[in-house]
Amino acid sequence: MKETRRRAVKKPSPTKRKQSSPNAKQSATEVKKPLWAGRLAEKPEEEAFAFQASINVDKRLVFDDITGSKAHAAMLGRQGIIPKDSAAKIVRELNNIAAEIKSGKLEIDAAFEDIHSFLEATLTQRLGDAGKMVHAGRSRNDQVAVDFRLYLKREVPLLQARIAETTNTLLDTAQLHLTSTMPGYTHLQKAQPVTLGFHLTAWCAALERDISRFSGALTRLDECPLGSGALAGTTLPLDRKSVAQELGFRGASVNAMDAVADRDFALELSSACAITMVHLSRFCEDVVLWASEEFKFIDLAESWSTGSSIMPQKKNPDFAELIRGKSARVTGNLLTLLTLLKGLPYAYNKDLQEDKESLFDSMDTLSICLRMFAGMMKSAKFNLKRMKASCTGGFLEATDTAEYLVRKGLPFRQAHETAAHIVRECIEKAHKHIGALTLGELKKHSKLFEEDIFKALTPAACVKGRILPGGPAPKEVRRQIKVLRKKIQNHVR
């Protein structure tokens, strides 16, 4: 039975590269042993081994693992823990391995347990005993922790740049529509006149916060866990400070146990992804509504729409709907991580192997959704006449009527009640807006009304009068756009 198990888990050679030094070459059987094989006389069955393996997920960390191992090996040499010439050989061969993987000459062997095992086995097969020295003073616990952080330090800025690109696309469109009036909504009912530029800038304000969330998470993950070992460090005289500096971290982690148990950074980034996806989902809900026959505010390009398999007339906003749908997936990934961590004792547990797949999926999903959303919005056309016409009806000018009376000296509560009575009269007389009443009819409600009320109640006047910071007045929205562009530039450099 034992012999059968050995044959079941036997895997092909990890590299196609021929050895130039026969004396250094290790047997395939030897390098194929799991890193923990010394304690156990038997290996898991093939299916069980595959179940606990993670290489199909963590193989994207391959270059980060090489980077971390190079810094670790160089430090081991400087500290005299391993011979300097061995350290130099390790670094040199790791550079060769990285180049071969990039060129496709060396393929990652998915039969290994994880990317760390694959790289160490490849190194050992090429360098023999020198290759075996690379793991001194290091556990896979701190090794994977540093790889994960290095990967995120590379990839998160790219994601931020993607959000910034999408935001700037929207700001460009907003700049073109500072005076394009449209209804603003609360409770999905017409509320007050705004502009398309103001509405799009509101989206961008949310996206700017998203970029800043990623920046905050990057700041907090910027600690190097390498040298923490399994949970309690090592007796070997490692130089953690120099390794952290060489790898571009702000410093070494404070506590070894926390360094290997901590996945706050994964939670924060997963949360940032989920919040950004929720924003995109809400934007897409606007788009879906605007594209409907009832609204007709937006005309999505045919290349960003689909048809129906049975209804020939249909032009469906499927891309917007899919982005909205994928937000559920990313939100689920956040819940996965929260649930994963909530019952784990300190320090490391195998459960933490599940941390990467969900976060990688969230980042990948957010990235493609941002690309799709930006492309969809960049090619869209807006029905400005329809938007402007929709400002008539629904009494969007009612608040401006009340504020007109306040400026004339009437207490706001009385002004609000007066405007409400005027709206009721308009409804009874089937008028679509307050301006349809005569000045005489308005004066029956308040003697404070004058001829200037009619100019004050046009959608354009209602928008222009809201010049306070944050308001929809064209001049103010132009300022908001400049502020947001500057903030984004500060986040993404």
Helices and strands in order, then pairings?
Elements: H1 2-9, H2 28-31, H3 46-52, H4 55-58, H5 62-78, H6 84-103, H7 115-127, H8 129-132, H9 140-176, E1 181-186, E2 189-195, H10 196-221, E3 223-224, H11 240-246, E4 251-252, H12 256-261, H13 264-290, E5 298-299, H14 318-342, H15 355-378, E6 381-382, H16 384-389, H17 398-407, H18 412-428, H19 439-443, H20 453-456, H21 459-464, H22 474-491
Parallel strand pairs: 3-4
Antiparallel strand pairs: 1-2, 5-6
Helix pairs in contact: 5-6, 5-9, 6-7, 9-10, 9-15, 9-22, 10-13, 10-22, 13-14, 13-15, 14-15, 17-18
Structure description:
The chain has helices at 2-9, 28-31, 46-52, 55-58, 62-78, 84-103, 115-127, 129-132, 140-176, 196-221, 240-246, 256-261, 264-290, 318-342, 355-378, 384-389, 398-407, 412-428, 439-443, 453-456, 459-464, 474-491; strands at residues 181-186, 189-195, 223-224, 251-252, 298-299, 381-382. With 493 residues, the protein is mainly α. It folds into 3 domains: 2-136, Fumarase C, Chain B, domain 1 (Orthogonal Bundle); 143-177 and 194-382, Fumarase/aspartase (Central domain) (Fumarase C, Chain A, domain 2, Up-down Bundle), CATH 1.20.200.10; 398-491, Orthogonal Bundle (Ribonucleotide Reductase Protein R1, domain 1), CATH 1.10.40.30. The strands form 3 sheets. It has a two-stranded antiparallel sheet with strand order 1-2. Helix 14 (318-342) packs antiparallel against helix 15. The chain starts with a helix and ends with a helix. 39% of the residues are buried.
